[in-house]
Amino acid sequence: MNVPFRPAPGPAVRALATRIGRLSPSCGPVRLVGVDGHAGSGKSTFAGQVAAALGGAPVLHLDDIASHEELFAWTGRLRRQVIEPLARGRSAHYTPYDWRARRFGPARPLAPAPVVLLEGVGAGRRAVRPHLALLLWMDVPCEEAWARGRSRDGEEQRAFWDGWVPAEEEHFARDPSRPFADLLVRGRETGYEVREGPGARPGPDHFFTEGDGPPAVC
To answer: Which of 1, 129, 138, 187 is the most exposed place for a label (fewest CB within 10 A)?
Structure first.
């Protein structure tokens, strides 16, 4: 049985939640926070912990926006269904994709909450960055992340991963996110390590970091 790597929440997550709460809105009344990184890097787990530390902030998973036919060509759908309504202060309605049935389902509402986390590969792409209050990058080397993902998904998804890896490589070659990340995040057994990223914006906040170690690269 494969046990997923799930770092425990700790001071870094709570400090991040406090920092996010001090940010200015970036998409209408919403502080839209992107959580990007390679597939298998722990984005969903981390976003869920940050959302909980924020008192239950909604998390939009880009897996619900992408599809088999459009692994990365989903920018227009995200803009129409999510970004534009939130920017007007209205509830968004997006149609989550069913990866088994290979079709989009009924619309789900997404309220313009004070903070909305946008989690998934490509959350920091150039078309989305202008709408983000903060961009986080899960700083796990690609090979390590993909190995975790393959282990998590098992043999059933082997063919999907064989197609996903080159598609992800092509995406980040054309539209990288890490160079623009405000913060780099790495899971440790004892919690998360959060560091200022290469795209950190000047500001008065000093940020709590947990742990130590060299930056991860692909």
So the answer is: 1
